[in-house]
Amino acid sequence: MEKMEENANKQNNAERPKGGLITMPFIFSNEVCEKLAVVGFYANMISYLTTQLHMPLTKAANTLTNFGGTASLTPLLGAFVADAYAGRFWTLTISSVIYQIAMTCLTLSAILPQLRPPPCKGEQVCQQATSGQLAILYGSLLLGALGSGGIRPCVAAFGADQFDETDPNQSTKTWKYFNWYYFVMGASILVAVTVLVYIQDNIGWGWGLGIPTIFMFISIIAFVAGYPLYRQMDPAGSPYTRLLQVSVAAFKKRKLAMVSAPELLYQNEELDASISIGGKLVHSKQMRFLDKAAIVTEEDNVKAPNLWRLNTVHRVEELKSVIRMGPIWASGILLITAYAQQSTFSLQQAKTMDRRLTNSFQIPAGSMSVFTMISMLSTIALYDRFLVRIARRFTGLDRGITFLHRMGIGFGISVLATLVAGFVEVKRKQVALAHGLEDKPQSVIPISVFWLVPQYGLHGIAEAFMSIGHLEFFYDQSPESMRSSATALFWTAISVGNYVSTLLVSLVHKFSAKPDGSNWLPDDNLNEGKLEYFYWLITGLQVVNLIYYISCAKLYTLKPIQIHSKVEGESEEDGVELAGKV
């Protein structure tokens, strides 16, 4: 009897489906702690660089955006390792350990006095950090960028993997997951820019960095503990190699005449089995020159093809899907450029304004982004609970509106955010001038910091629409075996956006300089600059970008995929659907 019960328990455990909602706490714990660690430092980093390491403002701003750019570029490497060799679980685990080491080093650099310059005394010139001290800082940041490079592209895709798209009962949960993912991420950022920034400003950077370091350690244990529950996708080989093989094969056969019908192009379901579990990509009419990679000639061995000469339609369509995503990817760059100013010049604006809530407490300048997080979280909640239901009545789509429409709304709101920021800066300087404080950068201007709330809030609303739509777009429209790599494109857009911000700041700082020393973006005194012109320059660039995006969205073709059904009583293949419309 005992043996029968034991066998029954084993059978139940074996049949228990993996994945689903039960895995979310383990996955989200990793994301929460990573964001606490990153944002807890990044949100207030400009204060750390200027007050602790005594960097000039422009150099500190560029250091900040360069770090953000690098940390958002490394996901390409992490995604490649996950898709090609290690899988998402092991990539996440190893990357989290690397990140843990980076945070430990950063915490030590904040605690040990010899790793940073001495505090300023009186009116003497502050001593800047030595090259050795900067090397330790940059080394820790680089190590952190490598760790986050494995976490960022994999955690979003790994969470979405827990819902089986071929199961009608779970397929509608994927788009909801991205709302939950971004909401949890936003909530952790909210804690970082309030509690952690307050600790950094009022208690010390040792505790301010030590606390997220401890939480990161706990998150690694929690994530690994969920291993038996996870639904995992086996790595299917290098996606970049497959894309290159199709390109080379199409080039070699560029002089061949096109076949008379798509049915004559090469198909091999056995060869594509590992990269088309949820459904195979079918032939599309765009970029037909790439179809030549699937033309069978007398030299080709169809049973064991040389993939540098002959590829299947599915593999050709993988490359087409990636190319089609390119213009939409590029449209997200300038929104990140605009968003990046919150951690640089908007923060510096806040430091000059009246931040008192009571006589004994004032809002830390680095915590102003709390208004971005609150507006973003509120928008996500309203979108998920109400806006989707209303939109569903008109569009008939389960997700309410398409991700392309969602992104477009975000772009439009972002234009408004930087336009408003320029007018707020004009008001701030008018008050400074009226009180004779234009040449006193250390004095607090008698204007409430809450004047900055509209620009922070609008950026949060824009992110709730654009960034979630962008992330969903990459996951939905990418080939199934390349979803880590495609999700990494979301972070590379952030990377390039930060680098564009660095370039734009440097160019404006250089070309707006006049012989009398005045500058749009002065190092020491914003009151003597023209920051509003800089904000309006970004506004103009975003208007051009919005027009570009609308054009790309209208021309975009959703990937055609043949989905294999798991519903009992239905045929094995549902037929061709346009991914993203269902």
TrEMBL record:
Gene3D superfamilies: MFS general substrate transporter like domains
Keyword Membrane: yes
Pfam families noted in UniProt: PTR2
A single GO cellular-component term on record: membrane
InterPro entries per UniProt: MFS_trans_sf, POT_fam
Subcellular location: Membrane
Top-rank taxon: Eukaryota
UniProtKB keywords: Membrane, Transmembrane, Transmembrane helix
SUPFAM superfamilies listed in its UniProt record: MFS general substrate transporter
Molecular function (Gene Ontology), one example: transmembrane transporter activity
Topology in the lipid bilayer: Multi-pass membrane protein
TM annotation in the entry: 180-199, 205-230, 322-341, 361-383, 403-424, 444-468, 489-513, 533-556
Annotated family: Belongs to the major facilitator superfamily. Proton-dependent oligopeptide transporter (POT/PTR) (TC 2.A.17) family.
Protein's name according to its UniProt entry: Protein NRT1/ PTR FAMILY 3.1
Species of origin: Hibiscus syriacus
Organism phylogeny: Eukaryota, Viridiplantae, Streptophyta, Embryophyta, Tracheophyta
